[in-house]
Amino acid sequence: MRRLLPLLLAVLVVLAGCNGIGLPGSGDEPGLDTNTTETPMATPGTPGENVTGESVKAEALAAIEAVETYRLRANQTTRYAELNRTVNSTVNGTFDRTVRNASLVQNLTARSLAFSVETYVDGASETRYQYSRIYEQEYDSRWIRTDLSGNFSATWEQYDTLSRQRALLEASNVTLDGIERVNGTDVYVLTATTNRSEYEALGIGTGGAANVSTVSATFYVGVEDDRLVRSTVNVSGTERASGRTLTFERTTDLRFDGYGEPVDIQLPAGASDAVTVASPNGTVA
Q1: What Gene3D superfamilies does this protein map onto (predicted)?
Q2: H or E, element range at 31
Q3: Most exposed residue of 46, 85, 229, 267, measured as fewest CB within 10 angstroms of its CB?
Q4: Which residues pair with 122 in a beta bridge?
């Protein structure tokens, strides 16, 4: 195990930089309830006669586009065959799309290694602030900041999880697989297939560093409001860390709520002492 620690740490840093699943909240927040299908409904879970996969997809795309604020909870599991190790990541995020502000708390664990990364994206200054103990060795500070003004819109789209999920849904062929209940909400279940090259082009959860072999997704869309309640994405392929090519299998479970609720994202006081980093170190899923 000891000889794998440097490589495993490199893998964790890569995931912290390019898998965006989340930051505020903290490590003691509850994880996701994996038993998401509740007591069966009194009526059969069958869509109406005129409801199709394509019609649900179209309504969902429009609903996602109209969202101003939302919250995210996510779980991600990545298995690396060569390391015989699994990396777990949880994220809690809050987003204000009207001013392009976001705050995320991402916790990553792999055996004896564990750390968290807090990320704050400030639309007014077009700057990203991040806090983690993993930055101390390189920057002599737990706080770092990156000027994103040269490419802020593209960076924001990588952090805005709904935008990424919308892009994935838009690029996918979908099949309507009935109605279920998730988190107390009746949802249409869309099974999606996406061409792997199209997925790579989207850069979702890969930071452009992965070669994708297979990808599949399922979208859970609210029956009443067409909003995305949940999505799951399964990806396999290879990616590089610390000069090595590693084979991975990755499962991501995203939950969305708090649509339209007021949010107030503030930078912590310590951010004023952040060390300036010359270029971005990646994006979050």
Answers
A1: 2.50.20.20
A2: none
A3: 46
A4: 127
